[in-house]
Amino acid sequence: MLLLVAFVATAHAEDEQTLDDRTVGVVVQGGGGLRRRVEEHVSEKLRREGYSANDEPLSKDALNTIANCFIIEDLGCANGVFEARSRTLRLVFVRIDDSTGATTLDFTWFSKGHEPVSAKRTCSECAREWKDHTEELIATLSAQAQMPIVIEPEPDPERPAARNKLWSRLLVGAGAATVIAGGVLLYYGLRDGAEHKYVYPQLTPVGIVGIAVGGGAVIGGIITW
């Protein structure tokens, strides 16, 4: 029964997952020890702007792919990865380059359905200036970025509308539990012989009914799923 409760709770959580257009993914690369501080400050600034921050907007594979797009300076490639694989409708991608002596903060804001917008700042003493630059860049890009456009897929006329999977999963879980209980009852009902001190022949029909009912519930749940 504990497994059944966990199963249903997980199913319910999966069914309620939605994309929030006020959530912004945050990715910061480069900069050594400065990277983590910039990431935290970007998230804090986004919250002050009315957004929430997501620090895992891309899978590891997608993150490597979009980083390679930036290495070859192909913003169209990066936007294609974002459109296809981002877990959020908006994404702030920050690159910190300190290979030339000065430090460059390069910000790109992605928004579903639109071209990305970018801006950068260079500082000679970023130990003091990076916060001001981060504040300015987030404010500038959030003002320029457009609302995400989410295109809903056209319904397939040959395919029935998706049903609520929660009840189907609940039916499968409850049916499986009933089958197991019926099996236990049938086992005790069929026990016989002198080696058993107690026998329960009256449990045999109950076990058979439980297995039949539970099996039917599992089949029904699979069909409606």
Overall number of strands: 5
CATH fold type of the largest domain: Double Stranded RNA Binding Domain
CATH superfamily membership of the largest domain: Ribosome hibernation promotion factor-like
Please tell me the total number of domains. 2
Nearest-angstrom radius of gyration? 28 Å
Helix content: 40-55%
| Secondary-structure element string | HEHEHHEEEHHH
**What is the average of the pLDDT values?**
83
Secondary-structure-based class equals: alpha/beta
Shape: elongated
Which stretches are poorly predicted, pLDDT < 50 over at least 5 residues? 1-18
At the first level of CATH, the class of the largest domain is Alpha Beta
Q: Please report which band the strand proportion falls in: under 5%, 5-15%, 15-25%, 25-35%, 35-45% or over 45%.
A: 15-25%
- What is the CATH architecture assignment of the largest domain? 2-Layer Sandwich
Major beta sheet, specifics? 5 strands, mixed
Q: Figure out the total of helices.
A: 7
Note the gap between the termini: 21 Å
Strand order of the biggest β-sheet: 2-1-3-4-5
